[in-house]
Design goal:
325 residues; alpha/beta; 13 helices; elongated; 45% helix
Length: 325
Amino acid sequence: MTIYDIATAAGVSASTVSRVINHKSGIRKETREKIEKLIEEYNYSPIVAARGLVMQSSKMIGILLVDIRVVHHIDNAFAIEQELAKRGYCSIIMSTGADEANIGSCIRQLEQRRVEGIALIGSMFMAKSTYHTIKTYLPDIPVVIINGYLDLPNVTGIIADEESGVTDCVALLARKGRKNIVYVNDADSPANRNKRKGFLAGIRALGYPQNKIYEAATSYASGYEITKDILREDPSVDGIIYSVDITATGGALLESGRKVPEDISVIGVDNSIYAKISYPQLTSLDNNAESQSKLAVDLLIKALNNEPHERSVLLKTHIVERETT
């Protein structure tokens, strides 16, 4: 009988069994009692078995993001990794892809590597499969989600209020005299669904007609093509909000004889590097990526130290106005 056999029988990680053996805090009472009962039942000798255990903290944190090519997500990962390094932690950064089975596999790999905590970047991790994987394999390891939340006792969520932010974008365009505003969505995700809700709320608040929502890919080329289609279908469109900056940069470069921002206004979301290097420079909704990253580390460290901390945090957004409005 090994520590891993005890962990399997208890439905917890080997590190959780180790923490019980070594009388560490932060273990739920029922979990501790279950493990102690198994130790007694199997006549397991903690003193002998513990000789092979790594007694010190691993000082390792896992950072997962769906697609490492998404610039604002890798910016989050970089900021988290740098902040953790200042506090003596090493990071394992993994790009999971969107496949739920692969996301689950990556989470289990981190558990096997005995990470002390995990940071998940992006609302795509707000999935039932992720919920069940964490609940099953990481019930005692602190997890923080940037722009998402899962209702588990060891999970903390940080959410940017992009819904209200996009509503504010609609109001800004209205103040600029725009009457026919549309929205371009780049992917189906919980965050983008909130942005869509914010757009529709803004349109309703102004009493504008229920304008159209278009779908595009997360790319400059897709933004360019969908914008041409929008203006071909309805030349009276005078304001476009895009769910992500990279798609908006394609929309900002018009070849229809319409001038930005004189004839049509363009807004993106993320306030990423794309907004700053775009020509003309792109007005964008800043979702406070840097603040999210620093807060994620603060909350993760508090959870690792068993200190009181918030389970869910909502951060305000703000519009950075540039040349496209």
